[in-house]
Write a structure and sequence with these properties.
Number of domains: 1
Structural class: mainly beta
CATH superfamily: Porin
Largest sheet: 11 strands, antiparallel
Shape: globular
Helix content: under 10%
Strand order of the largest sheet: 3-4-5-6-7-8-9-10-11-12-13
Number of strands: 13
Number of helices: 1
CATH topology: Porin
Amino acid sequence: MPVAFYTFQDQLRFTFDPFGNGTVGQVGNVYAAEVRLNNTIAYISPDFSGFSVKAAYSTQMGANQSGGTGGFMGSAAGVTNENVDNFGDVKVFAINPMYVNGPLTVAVNYHQAKEKDITDLKLKNWDLGASYDFGVVKLSGMYGNRQAEALGVDVMDRDQWMIGLTAPVGAAGKVLVSYVSAEDDELGGADARQWAIGYNHALSKRTGLYAVYADIKNDDGSAGQTLNASVGDASNGGEGYQQGFQVGVRHTF
């Protein structure tokens, strides 16, 4: 049975997004990514004075593994867990260097994917993320580009970025704010933008309360396109809603 592997790009989003994964404020509502891979071999290096690197190769990314707004390779007709004669297989290579030094974190992700035979879908994706904790506020940001083609024709050229902050309030609280934008030149400059604000309150080391509000604006050109974003969380894509409010309790096991 295939075992899913969370991509370095998804891990990068989780690292720098103030909201992480799982709330309506998550950057993944707009900032597209391949989320999981099957059939993957990965290497994770030791830490060398704050520097580390991860690399992975998938012989076939597997069915329903792409995920995320604008997930491209998951739409390939031949994306299954296993194909006869590798027809339609989507192979993926990824690398993720990271540097952590006290309050500073910097990371880069690059991955490329290619489908065999059906439409020769190709995807090249890179991302840069950084954060710095000043104590009174932690600033973070990401910028990435996704380029794709099918049958030799460009079908995606998407720039996406996020800026966020986390500010402590007292001993147990944190205010979270982020703004994320994506624009695709291959869709006539269609774009989507989201801003989100939230509050986390720790009840203990493993349990906390949270409240989040998020709002998305899609321009007219994004309607019916992969860039058309909605407010959702880890369990629900949002079903087209453009505003979301969420309260909950989180417990880490």
